Amino acid sequence: MHKRGRLKQRMWLAAILGLFAALLLTYWELRPAHPPGSTSPGTHTSRAPAKPRNAAPSLAELTAAHRVEAGTVVPLSGRAFLIKRPPERRPPGDAAAFARTLLPASARGDSVASYRLYLAAADCEASVSPEVMRANQRIAEWLPPNQAELSARAMEECETLLVDPELSDRRAWLRLAAAQGSVEAAVVYALTIDEVVGGPDEWLKHPEKVADYKQRALRYLEQAAAVGSVGALWSLSDAYKGGFLAPEDPVKALAYRIAAVQMEPAIGAQGSIERMEKLLSPDQISEARRQARLIHQQCCSL
User: Is position 251 within any domain?
Assistant: First the structure.
């Protein structure tokens, strides 16, 4: 009796183990090779593995995503590029009518459309600016003979836009374009706090806006530099050299300057590098050059 009972127990145990093995084998054969969020065998299992260097978008992809405007981009070596916009900020004619054609795209998240709205508003504001008028008077001999006629026409074309609060708020359009990812807007955003926050009176009244501006400007520049904008590299060099947007760091300033000049040598650029190097020790210069190589690999190499 006892032997027969033990035999039955063993048979039940074998059956259960067999069933478990069959279920495990079925799961093993049907499971995804690499479940979402997992890594393939032999890879590092960190939570957010670093993207490969060529994972950054190409210039064609940036254009398709409306982060840069076709026709304003000058390709350089690798993934680096410059943005060169013609002097005309908007087409001739009714500025408000032109701006309204851009509103639907801007509302969909098109950063190029939002940046063009900024350009139109800025151009129209300049057409009635007393400072611009005084500047034109000072340099009248270098302006076209029909400058007065051109200025009068611009004021007429801009009249409707300037009285529309939505269309005429150039700072709001610049902030929106930069937030949507416009590379060109990122550089302009960081160029001057006045263009985003306002003048010194606003700085004193709203120090929190200044702090927010600095954080955003630095982040926008880093994002623009990461996709190959040489203008952003230059601006980051200035940011770490000046110590306003970011804590002063002469080594980082030199590193970004070297990376920018490597992509697009400018007149006097090598002299500016030499002047920056004179303020650093040999070890600091060596570190800046090491950082410049990394910056170049991350932003601009294919």
Answer: yes
